[in-house]
Amino acid sequence: xxxxxxxxxxxxxxxxxxxxxxxxxxxxxxxxxxxxxxxxxxxxxxxxxxxxxxxxxxxxxxxxxxxxxxxxxxxxxxxxxxxxxxxxxxxxxxxxxxxxxxxxxxxxxxxxx
Length: 113
Fold this sequence. Notes:
Elements: H1 77-86, H2 88-112
């Protein structure tokens, strides 16, 4: 059952708040940039951890079961790409096939239930 619509000849469309001129408006707010007299660029800031003994990660995951492996820390794009080819690319097809098989088994179990 649906509520019957009654024609309203005074309807002027969806209501919108009226715009009132503001004589003090100066445009969009832009934050002021204030110089920091204590700031200096430190060339050695990245040399603090040399050699690094450990690296920490704070990982937030939405879905349980996520696995993080084969982590590399480098400043070389070529080294990272080579590492990706040796690890992730070598296993991605097998992992996708395994995932699809598990999902298919879940769907089949749900259809039987």
